[in-house]
Amino acid sequence: MKFYNTLTKKLEDFQPVEPGRVKMYVCGPTVYDYFHIGNARPFILFDSLRRYLEHRGYKVLYAQNVTDVDDKIINRATAEKISPSEVAQKYTQAYFEDLEKLGVRPANIQPKATEKIPEMVKFIEQLIQKGSAYEVKGDIFFRVKRFKGYGKLSKKSIDDLQAGARVEVNEQKEDPLDFALWKGAKPGEPHWPSPWGEGRPGWHLECSVMSMEILGETFDIHGGGTDLIFPHHENEIAQSESNTGKPFVRYWLHNELLNIQGEKMSKSLGNFEYARDIIAQYGREAIRYFYLSKHYRSPMGFSHDLLADSKRAVERIYNLLEGLASQVKGQADDLKLDPKKLSDAGKDFLALIEKTREEYIQSLDNDFNTAGGMGVLFEFVKEANIFRQNVAPSDLPLLKEALDLFRELGEPLGLFQESPWMQSGSESQEKLIQLLIQLRNDLRVKKEFQLSDKIRNQLQEMGIELKDKDNETLWSYVRK
Question: What CATH number was assigned to the domain covering residues 314-413?
Fold first, then answer.
């Protein structure tokens, strides 16, 4: 397995600190609003990477923070005329609700910044003792030029750096590049005790303290969007390595951003759409497919047409799966694969199944190239559709093998898991559904369409979708 490491600008063999175990940290949200659809890219990407690492046999400890104290939260509290803690609580809950709608599994550990204030104070005290930080009237700043490796992640020369839009300007600082570790309390703002007076931590500090407390002083993967490389991740490295004297992270992975009409989608520009609205329109699998069909280091453009295309692509695969499922329905337990009994076409198809699995893994092992993996799956869709049209009785077990392949390879991506053969209820429940379908069909023959439509609509409300095709009614569980 190889990853492109932002730190070295190279594709590197992946060798975790502890063999067989991966420790990964990804920057989480600042909870002052619902997250937009561009924010969803890293959430989906690193959820899928975590799943794939587990698929390949690693034990993964995945941590993601929640920034619940920040200037944006304070400003939103003022606008909504509620307390900052109420703002944070409201949007933290919304964040986890929207993650669930996207099929994103919760991280193993998700600390909130406000829960780790004493640890952050201790961290700052250590930096002051080492001469890497200093106090000015209750504020604490990090001495950037004291850290010799500053700029190694972003490849920025410290001599060329100027105090700009993303570096806070403060006349009290020794150097305009120095950044805040602790901010003295201001009237009406949340604050906590410290040796330097009441105040609150800086954003960069929070991630260093929380990640190292959970994962150790050196861990394997740190992820986030490219917009976090400088100054956030650069500052994390500086303060962390100044404190420990050890490498902070081995592999830095950064996803490119979502653009709309050539500009980065962002709330500051006002050119965004909330993720929850897009989920309601297209469903989680279309959104996951939209992102995973492109390499994570490639910029992406947003449009409703592209999302509609993604939804159709997902439906195309589900149509194949439903066709395969209908061909083996009721006899799956009897479909034992015996390669000796296969026809020549069946032997070729079995070889294609193995080739598909191998090429899929090769793609994802190569810098998590999900786009390549999707291409492999769609080649298989094309061949499987041809094969199933004239399948020999001796080759029927291969249809179940194909179903199992999609379940196996789709799971790391959070795709292609919602189908009748995976979600079916009891045998009596299925017989009841079939009875209702037969009743509906009898009513249609009698042209009692009001009652037949009522049965269809009530089944739909129960999560069961009917499709009338070629004088037959097929049913499946509704995909979300």
Answer: 1.10.730
